[in-house]
Design brief:
Elements lengths: L29 H7 L1 H8 L4 H29 L5 H7 L4 H5 L4 H6 L9 H19 L2 H4 L12 H29 L7 H24 L2 H7 L12 H22 L7 H4 L18 H12 L4 H10 L5 H14 L3 H9 L2 H11 L9 H28 L7 H32 L5 H30 L1 E5 L6 E4 L3 H9 L3 E6 L1 H27 L16
Antiparallel strand pairs: 1-2, 1-3
Helix pairs in contact: 1-2, 3-9, 3-10, 4-9, 4-21, 7-9, 7-12, 10-17, 15-21, 15-23, 16-19, 16-21, 16-23, 18-20, 19-20, 19-23, 21-23
Keywords: Membrane, Transmembrane, Transmembrane helix
Organism: Strongyloides stercoralis (Threadworm)
Protein name: Acetyl-coenzyme A transporter 1
Length: 549
């Protein structure tokens, strides 16, 4: 899964899991479609790959489950007044997907022949995830109590230590499944791997995150499933983890028994045609040492440094709005399950919007859309801050009027559309410059740097906001300041004593302003270099130069 599907999970707005998704316009075989009908031709296209496509969807679905589960944590913690610094520490759980390139060559190069190249890693990894989820389920309620109990604080370091290995295992499973997809599918349908990734992982995140928010909500349980209101949701966090632990184990055992590894592309690879210049475009198979050496060669390419600078820094402008807006809404009183349900309406956008703009990102200048959308993303920073201020003024008795939810839905639709546009633009540029001889390694490196830039900006901005924020404990009777609410423990103590924590300086708004200033400077400095990147001849990006006749 190089491309973590975007899901708003508090700290993890998780920039799309960057996997190369290509949206092609099919203009061939129109005559056959008219004769046979589009449905028959559609079925015929996938003939022979039906079981492989189904299995890939299932494996990618399972991959999304841990991501969704980990994504629930920031929302759960936000209800318990955890500081942003603590949340920034927990965000390290998302780093394995940004750093999996470090051990991906090992997964690709070492295997047991009798088991299979990909099953050697897939089977034990998924079994470990299964066992891990079941073990966590036995004590997670002790670390995150179902109820907020006075005097009990959540140890964020312990929580991070628990869920970091889970994400590491999910990232390793991703490497194995990505590699298996290339040989499991026939040559003609290998392009469906990214589609299976997107759909499967999207559904996995939905069930691991949104479905848990819905089923664990006392509000929705009483509204839709119970005749008599009862305390608590339909499921607890521990039972949810236990259930998916069992599912992981069951699916893994079935795959081990019934699915054998066969390279369906071997025969078709023999028929690979050469390109117009006479050079083979098929990807080389590299060993561990060769892969690491190749990565270094890519990084040291002359035009690569400016591109890496852009990838590392471009998300700092939007880090505050992307990574903390949802957390602030929960702190203001919006139920986490309501916020999760808003995002359900955003999922179709992620599927259909790329198709609509696909034709605008092909060609020689795909980065144009990236830099044209950038100023509008900064405008959305300001819009989000205004929306948050409005939300803070209209809450009554712990509830929001319906127009607030509609307001946020439209705001998120616009912001997500711009984000998808920028994502597809830069993905198209990656596809244009990648050396086809080492396409997988090249793309993985660029995607890793992109993910790492987004993850790091999210971690840093949480710390900055916490440093800039000044929040005091106000005596409810006298209105006097009696202390600070800097830490989660101090905040909880203030509230438990019947007082309120009030913002003197809100670091969120300051960070939004700083992000806009940074974005303006960033755009002024890098606008021309970004334009010039598209003018660099493709040969300058290649590791294996084409032979001159």
């Amino acid at each position: 899964m190089s491309n973590e599907l975007k899901h708003r999970t508090g700290v993890f707005v998780n920039d799309y899991n960057f996997k190369e998704n290509k949206y092609h316009e099919e203009e061939d075989n129109n005559i056959d479609r008219k004769k046979n009908g589009w449905y028959k031709n559609w079925i015929k296209q996938y003939h022979g790959d039906e079981s492989s496509i189904t299995l890939l969807l299932l494996l990618y679905f399972l991959q999304g489950i841990p991501l969704g589960i980990i994504g629930c944590i920031p929302f759960i913690l936000s209800e318990r007044n955890i500081s942003l610094t603590d949340l920034s520490f927990f965000s390290f759980c998302s780093y394995p997907f940004s750093a999996k390139l470090l051990w991906a060559p090992i997964v690709d190069s070492i295997w047991i022949k009798s088991i299979g190249r990909r099953k050697t890693w897939l089977i034990p990894t998924q079994l470990l995830i299964s066992i891990y989820l079941i073990i966590i389920s036995t004590f997670i309620n002790d670390i995150i109590p179902e109820e907020q109990i006075h005097g009990i604080s959540i140890n964020i370091k312990v929580l991070t230590a628990i869920f970091l290995p889970l994400n590491f295992l999910a990232a390793t499973q991703d490497i194995a499944v990505d590699g298996w997809a290339l040989t499991m599918l026939s040559r003609k349908n290998v392009g469906l791997a990214s589609t299976c990734n997107a759909i499967g992982q999207y559904l996995g995140v939905f069930f691991g995150y949104n479905m848990f928010m819905f089923l664990s909500s006392e509000k929705y349980a009483n509204k839709f499933f119970r005749n008599t209101p009862t305390h608590g949701g339909l499921v607890s966090f521990s039972s949810f983890l236990f259930f998916w632990g069992l599912i992981f184990g069951l699916v893994t055992i079935l795959v081990l028994i019934f699915k054998t590894e066969v390279d369906n592309s071997i025969e078709e690879k023999k028929n690979d045609k050469k390109n117009e210049d006479g050079d083979e475009e098929s990807e080389l198979e590299l060993g561990i040492g060769e892969t690491y050496t190749t990565l270094w060669k890519i990084i040291t390419l002359k035009p690569m440094w400016i591109l890496l600078l852009i990838l590392f820094t471009n998300k700092f402008s939007f880090a505050a709005s992307d990574n903390t807006t949802a957390i602030r809404l929960i702190e203001l009183g919006m139920p986490k399950e309501d916020l999760a349900m808003i995002n359900v309406f955003l999922y179709p956008l992620q599927i259909f919007f790329p198709i609509l703009i696909g034709k605008f990102i092909v060609g020689k200048n795909p980065l144009n859309l990236f830099i044209y959308a950038y100023p509008f993303r900064m405008i959305m920073n300001i819009v989000y801050s205004l929306f948050l201020y409005i939300s803070s003024t209209v809450i009554q008795n712990g509830t929001y009027p319906y127009y607030i939810y509609i307001m946020w839905l439209f705001g998120m639709l616009i912001n997500d559309s711009l984000q998808i546009t920028m994502f597809l633009s830069i993905m198209s540029f990656f596809a244009n410059i990648s050396d086809p001889k080492i396409g997988g390694t090249y793309m993985t490196l660029l995607n890793t740097i992109t993910n790492l830039g987004g993850t790091m900006s999210g971690t840093v901005i949480l710390i900055i906001i916490d440093m800039l924020t000044i929040q005091n404990c106000i005596d409810k009777k006298t209105g006097e300041t009696i202390g600070e609410c800097k830490t989660s423990q101090a905040h909880q103590l203030c509230v438990d004593n019947g007082n309120t924590c009030s913002f003197i300086i809100d670091g969120y708004y300051l960070s939004i302003a700083l992000g806009c200033i940074f974005g303006i400077v960033w755009l002024l400095i890098l606008w021309k270099p970004i334009k010039n990147l598209q003018k660099i001849p493709r040969e300058e990006w290649l590791i294996f130069k084409k032979k001159k006749e």
